[in-house]
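Example complex used in Figure S2.
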Amino acid sequence: MTINATYHIRQPESKIDAVAEKLAIGLTVGSWTDLTAEDRDHLERFKGQVIEKKVLEENLLEVVIGYPESNVTPDFSSIITTVFGKLSLDGEVKLIDLEFAADYYRHFKGPAFGIEGIRELLGVAGRPLVMSIFKGIIGRDKVFFEEQLRAQALGGVNLIKDDEILYDVPELPFEERIQIANRVLDEVEQETGRKVIYAVNLSGPVFDLPEKARRGVELGARAFLFNVHSYGLDVLKGLRALELGVPLMAHPAFSGAIAGSPDYGLSYPLILAKLTRLAGADLVLFPAPFGSVTLSEETAGAIVAECVKTLPISAAFPVPSAGIHPGLVNKLIDSYGVDQVINAGGGVHGHPEGAAAGGRAFTEAIDLYYGGTTGSAYEQAVTLWGS
Amino acid sequence: MTINATYHIRQPESKIDAVAEKLAIGLTVGSWTDLTAEDRDHLERFKGQVIEKKVLEENLLEVVIGYPESNVTPDFSSIITTVFGKLSLDGEVKLIDLEFAADYYRHFKGPAFGIEGIRELLGVAGRPLVMSIFKGIIGRDKVFFEEQLRAQALGGVNLIKDDEILYDVPELPFEERIQIANRVLDEVEQETGRKVIYAVNLSGPVFDLPEKARRGVELGARAFLFNVHSYGLDVLKGLRALELGVPLMAHPAFSGAIAGSPDYGLSYPLILAKLTRLAGADLVLFPAPFGSVTLSEETAGAIVAECVKTLPISAAFPVPSAGIHPGLVNKLIDSYGVDQVINAGGGVHGHPEGAAAGGRAFTEAIDLYYGGTTGSAYEQAVTLWGS
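Predicted assembly (774 residues):
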C-alpha cells in the first residue's frame, strides 16, 4: 500500500512528466535508469508511483505520488521527511494533501474523545459548544486568573482555554492553575449545574512533557492545550499514546509559517486539521474566515471537513477562532453545522457588562438560532459588534 | 532583558506605527489603552517594546520587537509561539531574525563538539572536511550497506551520513547499521590510518528517542543524523541535554516548508542555522547555492555566518550540500573558508571509477586548493562535471 501525496507545483506543462518521475524515483529509490534488471525487480516495491498528474492552470501542475508505506515508519517525521523533506527545498512546491490507506490508520490513535466523547464529558448534545479564552493574562497573578476564570465560567461557556502564550511561569505555575481551576469550576458546577472544562497549556522541555502531563492529570487537569505546530506533530502523537484520559486541544499557533504561503509549505487543511486529528487532537482550533485573522471560506470549510470526515479514527471538534463575537454565531452554524466549538476571547471579555455577560450572549445566540427567544446579553453584543 | 524579533511585513508605510504597536502590545499584554494606571505600572515589564521600525521598500516594512525574556520559558516552542504563533496566521509577515542577550545563552547548551571538537575527533586541522552520503539505499540490505560504506570510507572522506529518508526499517535496523559501520570503519582505520565517522539517522517515536540514542551510543554510535525540522527544535534541544557524547548533525529536510517563501515563515539563516546551532547541532547541513537545490549566495552566506559567528556557544560546522562535485571545491572554500564540511552524494558515487575514487577526487581537490598537485581522480571528476 502507498501513502499518496498531492502536490501543487509551479512548473510549465512541458515539465509534467519529468517532474512527476523525479519525485517518484528521486524521493524513494534514488535512480532507476542506472539499475540492473535484477535490482529493478527487487526495488520495484520501494519505488514511488505516479498516481496522477494534471495541469491545473498555466504553470501550475498537480501531481500525486504514491510512496510505499514500507519506506517509512509510522512517525510524522518519517512520513513528512520522505514526502516533503528535500522536496521542500526545491522551489515552489506545496504539499496539498496526504492520503492513507484505511489499514494504515492502525498506527494512529486519533482523538481519544473526539466530538462524541467531549459532548459526553460536558453533557451537551445537539448544539455547538462555546469556549472562551483568557485575555490579558500575561504578567498577571493568581487572583486575576481566578477572577477571570470564574467570570468566564459563570456566563455559560462549556470550555475555557489558556492563552497559548501563557507558559509555566512563576507567577502562574501550571500546577496551581490546574488546582485553582478545579476549585472554581467545581463551585460553578454546584451553583449552576453546568460542567466547564479548563484546558491548561502544556509546555516546557519536550522530554519532560509526558511526566508533566501525567502530573497534571493527577492534580486534576481536565484538558490540555498544546502548541502542536511549534513542538512537532510527533510530540502530540506521543502525548496521545500516553492515554492520559483527558482531551487534547491543538492550537494553530505557528501553523501560518508552514501553511501561509500559496506556493510553499503544506496546506492549512492538511497541517491544521488532517494531521493534528491523526496525531490525536480532540479539538482543532483554526482561524475563522469571518473574524480578525482571515483564511478564505473555502480553506476554513476544508479544515472543518478534515476534522469530521468519516475515517477509522474519531472525529475532532473543529474550533473556529479569532475575532468571533455573538453576532457571528448564525453564520458559524450555517457554515459548519452543530458539531463545532465556537471560541472567543475579545467577544466574551469585551462585552459591555463583562465576561459573564459575554458568555451568556453566545449561549443566547445559539438558543436563538435553534428557535429560542433573544436575550439581553446577545442584544447588547449585537449592538456593539453587529451581526 | 528582551528577545528581539525582526520581521519583514508587507504593509504600506502608512501602517508602520499601528503594525509595530499591534505586535508589541498584542503579542504580550494584549491591550494597553484599556488598562488602569496601576495595571500599566505593573505590566510595563511584560510589555513588548518597539525597538526599531523602518521602510525597506514600497510596501515592505522592517519592524523589530523586543519581547521580555520573562514572558517565555527557554523552550523553542514557547519562544516561537510568542514571537510568531498567532502572528504567523496574520498575512504576509516573515520572521527574519531572533536576537538573544548574551546572558540568555545560559539556557542553551549549543554544540557539544562544534568545529573544534569535531576536528579533534577526526584529527584533521587546517582544511575543510569531506562527507559523503549513501545513495540508493532505500530497499537495500546489509550487504549493500556494508559495501557502499566501505567504498565511501576508503576514498578518504571524513564523515559518512545516512540518507535522511532511511529510517529504522527491518531490512537495515538502526542497531545493526551502527554495528556494521563500527566494524567497517575500524578496519578502514587500521588499513589507512584515517578515522571516519558514520552518522546514523536517529528516528522513531519522539519519546523513545532519548533511550534509543543512549542505546545507540552504547552500541558504539559515533554521530547522529537528525531530521530536526520535521521533529521540532525542542526535540534536538532535548537530545543535546542528554550529553550523549557524540556529535549531532542537523538535516535541512522540511525546512523549505518553513523558510522557502519570501513572504511567510522564518528566514533560512534563522531556522536552518541560528536556531539549530542554539539547539545543539554540531553540523548544520544546508543546500549550497552552487549545486542542484539552489538558495541564493547571499542566503547561503548568511547561513554560514550564523554557524560560525562568535557567541557564548560553540560554532557549528556549516555543511554545504546538494549537487556538490569536486569541481566546486575551489568555489566552496573561497566562499565559506576552511571551516566547512563539503558534503556530496552523487558527486562521490557518480565518479567514473566508483565511490572510493569519488572521495579521493574531493581530497585531491582540497589538496590542490592548498597548493598540492592535481590527482587523477580529481581530473576525471572535472572532465565529467566541470569546475
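Residues 350 and 358 of chain B are 7 Å apart (CA to CA). Chain B has two domains: 2-107, 114-385.
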